[in-house]
Design brief:
Length: 481
């Protein structure tokens, strides 16, 4: 998922912010003096959060074509209580207003409209046939469901369908629009649905306490808090950090860049050995950095060597849930941070890692500025062929993704290729007991699968060279075995 990144050490986000401010030597943004509280008058127009506002604008252009959808497919083996599952999802929609929110324009401004609970229905489809043909039909149905576009003005931005393959074999497909959820939300959804299913299957009531606030309460708080001095201090940091940064990372492509991006994408999967994965983590500990920082620095080194561009900007997600009352909410809280590094062929990796460490901590300490507000302040030249500020992405996912825990049911995550990508290139790494598992997503407008495969191999070779001799000049680090 797109926002479960590694955090330095075991620090909380507030502790990270304090540490980043100390290391960067910059003035801290004012501490939050007010808590997020439930809104009073439910009849007033509800603003969008800044993250939602940017997504809403992109959707109005009609260009994203499903790239903002979040989907998950899970095989369920066992005696599934379909009625209990549907009740669980209905209760989930009742609990979280954001799942029954649609978006309207009032006096020229986009607003949230929260509908009353009771309109959610889970679809149930029986898949005919058996064997390979049935499995092919299931996969086709999953892909169709995952790519079916939402209408933000009509709502119903959360869908669920159960495909029955056999009497004791089902596939659950859940799809949400990104404007109402993020990667963290998937974990909340899985945990709450599991608890509700267990209770409802045993004819008990909901075991979950009522939520202290809703997403619309957060959007109201954010609009009131992020202004004036708070906003200016955040903007000042990022303006200085990105002053003089290149407008784009010009990677060598397999074909010319089209004037308008299609957002079509594909994926290449690879893995790193347990020994190499452990060596990267050990290097971070010796250098006072996290695994995230080591891998980010290695990725940026690869991008520098590949492009020949000595100023490299990479985007990375952060959860954006610094208030405790937000941790159990579904919603679009994730924010994008930008990590910029400059390169000199004579520098060693240890020196680069120290710079990346300081840059990352400074970014964590100034994470409150929504990326949309940053773009608005920087006013980059409009270019329909690429995203502004950064065009490449990096994320490190922690080990142990949330899995449905239904009594008597074996749940297995199914691979799902979204077929879309908003950026030129994305590298995702996930920690596992067998080492780091990687996925390179690439824009098919620009790159072939062979290029993604070569890039994965080069990253593995480069990382091995780095952990073997972090004092070696970066210009001498090998990219081929």
């Amino acid at each position: 998922m797109d926002d479960l990144i590694d955090r330095p050490g075991k620090l909380s986000e507030s502790e990270l912010k304090m540490l980043g401010q100390k290391l960067s030597g910059r003035t801290a943004a004012p501490a939050r003096a007010d808590r997020i509280v439930p809104r009073g008058d439910h009849g007033l127009p509800l603003p969008l959060s800044y993250a939602q506002e940017r997504l809403w604008f992109v959707e109005q252009l009609g260009m994203a074509s499903g790239a903002h959808d979040l989907s998950a497919a899970v095989s369920l083996h066992g005696d599934l209580d379909v009625e209990a599952l549907e009740r669980s999802l209905q209760e989930l929609v009742r609990r979280h207003e954001v799942l029954r929110t649609r978006f309207a324009t009032v006096d020229g401004q986009a607003t949230q409209v929260v509908d009353e609970p009771g309109g959610f229905e889970m679809r149930w489809v029986q898949v005919p046939g058996q064997g390979e043909q049935a499995q092919a039909d299931v996969q086709a149905a999953i892909q169709q469901e995952a790519t079916c576009r939402f209408d933000l003005t009509r709502g119903a931005l959360f869908r669920a369908i159960v495909l029955q393959v056999q009497a004791r074999e089902h596939v659950l497909v859940l799809t949400m629009h990104h404007i109402v959820a993020d990667g963290w939300s998937i974990g909340v959804l899985v945990r709450e649905t599991s608890a509700l299913y267990e209770a409802f299957a045993q004819c008990r009531g909901s075991p979950l306490p009522e939520l202290p606030v809703q997403y619309a309460d957060y959007a109201l708080w954010q609009r009131r808090w992020l202004q004036g001095t708070v906003l200016e201090q955040q903007l000042a940091y990022w303006r200085k950090e990105l002053d003089g940064a290149p407008a784009a990372l010009e990677l060598p492509t397999d074909r010319p860049r089209p004037p308008v991006a299609s957002f079509r994408g594909a994926s290449h999967h690879f893995s790193l050995s347990p020994a190499l994965s452990q060596a990267a983590a050990d290097l971070g500990r010796r250098e006072g950095a996290t695994l995230f920082m080591v891998l980010m620095a290695a990725y940026q080194t690869l991008l520098w060597r590949w492009s020949g561009q000595a100023d490299v900007v990479v985007g990375t997600p952060i959860a954006g849930r610094q208030h405790r009352e937000l941790e159990g909410l579904l919603g679009f809280f994730v924010n994008t941070l930008v990590v910029r590094s400059t390169f000199n062929a004579g520098d060693c990796f240890s020196a680069l890692l120290e710079r990346v460490r300081r840059t990352a901590l400074g970014a964590f300490a100034h994470q409150d500025l929504p990326f949309g507000k940053l773009v608005e302040a920087l006013q980059p030249a409009r270019d329909l062929s690429r995203q502004p500020v950064y065009q490449v992405w990096f994320v490190l996912e922690k080990q142990g993704q949330a899995v449905f825990d239904f009594p008597g049911i074996q749940a297995t995550q199914r691979a799902l290729d979204r077929g879309s990508l908003l950026l030129d290139l994305s590298l995702s790494l996930r920690e596992s007991a067998a080492g780091l598992v990687g996925t390179i997503e690439y824009a098919t407008d620009l790159f072939d699968e062979s290029t993604a495969c070569s890039l994965a191999q080069a990253f593995e070779v480069l990382l091995g060279e780095i952990v073997g001799d972090p004092g070696k000049a970066l210009g001498d680090v090998a990219l081929l075995d």
